[in-house]
Amino acid sequence: xxxxxxxIRPAVRALLVDESEQILxxxxxxxxxxxxxxxxPGGGIEPGESAPAALxxxxxxxxxxxxxxxxxxxx
Length: 75
Description:
This protein has one domain. It has one helix and four strands; from the N terminus they run ββββα. Strand 2 and strand 3 form a beta hairpin. Helices cover 17% and strands 19% of the residues. The chain is an alpha+beta fold.
């Protein structure tokens, strides 16, 4: 069996922190094992899209949040 090569996919993630300094994470499960994992909201950057625009779109699609994109903290 040959190893699968990773796919490079530009993406953005958000660290959403509330006034109590709690961070919003989403819970997913590994399809093959059912094991849980946690991840920050976000997703792929579409061709021609800026990182802030992609993040705004993803937060709107996933969480219904509009206008919450702040400053970039890491690249």
